[in-house]
Design goal:
This protein is an alpha/beta fold. The protein is built from 19 helices and 15 strands.
Length: about 475
């Protein structure tokens, strides 16, 4: 009899509700502030960008929020997603650890992003909105939003960070296949983009810049709303179907993780897997939860907890989060989805409450781990996912050193089929590590010196 390595749920077991971690957090996140008045943002302040259905989710205190049937029907195209036990990786590492991974690469866009893209498109559609403006780092979010908008007969304009626009042409092709309009950011099509190009004509772009361009389009167009692929509460909420499914599948395997690991940029992939386990931890389960980020964009490990803008042009509300400063432009690493100057307020507050941990690694080390995984398990990981794989291997080797069994669960947020130029660079020895030095971080943080300070303001690196 074959040894089981894949754990599948029945379609009927797909979650029917999203889990809202705010209901179980010992210290809820502090409110976002209006950039002009400094007062807490209200629903009317968000209405020019978001439909009321999403605004209500953003501020909700309810533990469970029903998933509309129309959203469930589209998610069912690829959900529930599989859980695997990485038996061949365990053997390659010669570790007593048991390694599991939740795989989100089976979605049409090849990542976890459609989980929230479909929901956001739906709530905009029922509100009468037929045009969306958004941004994307490496293209996962842009392609997911284009797919979701096509499902509901909507138009979408995607501002793609220029370095990724050039590095990942096939993600641009995916966006176009689903009818999206994709523009390299910074661009000459917006005031925010032009102002950046005037100062830095050869700018490689950043998520903060791309957000500014997309928000500008939405804020100045009565028929267009804005959608964000990470950071906001409702985005992380929609992703919690990942962790809910994983808990059921781990039970099928007869195991419970000692450590749960997710790569973390803005926080949506990490939150999707982690938040249901945070609920378990608050309720007494002994589980470590680790967010893993690039050393070149060390928001959680070297940023400070402060109020900051979500975009470079300072158009968004001020949010309380670990940040490197809104004018920080990360190096052009291939994990474009992790190149963001700040992290989700929910993720920040969980770190402050010691409910999660944070680690960071340079990209060559992560690609090395991704290749080890690929040559054992067969799946080529997205560069973002390689950070979670790196931490999983570190945990597995610790188990080996200690001679103790350890159950490890990590999120494989997507496949790397459109990231092969990055792997070529790795194999050719052309990949470089860009690690932010202390002087660079201090310089980037000057942008937030005069902004309001939240309760718990650190004023110094967190680690």
């Amino acid at each position: 009899m074959a040894i089981q390595s894949r754990y599948e749920l029945n379609p009927a077991d797909m979650p029917k509700q999203w889990y809202n971690v705010v209901a179980d957090m010992p210290t809820p996140p502090q409110p976002p502030l209006h950039p002009g008045t400094g007062q807490p943002v209200g629903p009317d302040d968000l209405a020019p960008l978001f439909p009321m259905g999403l605004i209500e989710q953003e501020v909700s205190q309810e533990r469970w929020i029903d998933i509309p049937e129309e959203v469930q029907n589209i998610l069912a195209i690829w959900r529930p997603s599989p859980l695997y036990r990485a038996r061949r990786l365990e053997k390659a590492l010669n570790t007593p650890a048991k390694i599991f991974y939740k795989y989100e690469g089976s979605s049409p866009a090849g990542s976890h992003k459609p989980n929230t893209a479909v929901a956001q498109a739906y709530f905009n559609k029922v509100a009468g909105i037929n045009k969306i403006a958004t941004e994307t780092g490496a293209g996962q979010w842009g392609s997911a939003m284009s797919f979701a908008c096509k499902m509901f007969g909507m138009e979408v304009k995607v501002f793609m960070v220029k370095v990724s626009y050039e590095q990942k042409p096939y993600r641009r092709s995916m966006i176009r296949c689903w009818g999206g309009d994709v523009i390299a950011s910074p661009s000459n099509t917006t005031h925010a983009g032009r102002s950046i190009l005037e100062k830095t004509p050869d700018s490689t772009g950043s998520l903060g810049i791309a957000i500014s361009e997309a928000v500008e389009v939405a804020a100045t167009s009565a028929d267009t709303n804005y959608c964000l692929g990470s950071v906001l509460n409702h985005v992380l909420l929609h992703q919690t179907i990942i962790g809910q499914e994983a808990i059921k599948q781990m039970a099928m395997a007869g195991e419970y993780p000692d450590v749960v690991i997710g790569c973390c940029g803005g926080g949506s992939n990490f939150g999707g897997l982690a938040h249901p386990y945070v609920q378990d931890k608050v309720n007494g389960k002994d589980v470590r939860i680790v967010a893993v980020e690039p050393s070149s964009c060390p928001t959680l490990t070297k940023g400070i907890f402060s109020y900051d803008f979500g975009d470079t042009a300072q158009m968004t509300p001020l949010v309380p989060a670990h940040t490197l400063g809104h004018d920080f432009v990360p190096p052009g690493i291939h994990a474009g989805g992790l190149r963001y100057h700040a992290v989700a307020p929910l993720t920040s507050q969980l770190l402050l409450s010691n409910l999660i941990e944070a680690e960071s690694y340079p990209q060559i080390e992560c690609f090395e781990s991704a290749v080890t995984f690929c040559r054992s398990e067969g799946i080529i990981p997205a560069p973002e996912s390689s950070h979670a794989i790196r931490q999983a291997i570190v945990e597995a080797m610790k188990a080996k050193e200690e001679g103790k069994e350890r159950v490890i669960l990590f999120g494989l947020s997507g496949h790397g089929h459109f990231d092969m130029s990055a792997y070529d660079a790795y194999f050719d020895g052309a990949l470089e590590d860009d690690v932010m030095d202390e002087a660079g971080i201090a310089s980037a943080l000057k942008a937030i010196e005069n902004l309001p300070k939240p309760v718990g303001y650190t004023g110094a690196p967190t680690k």
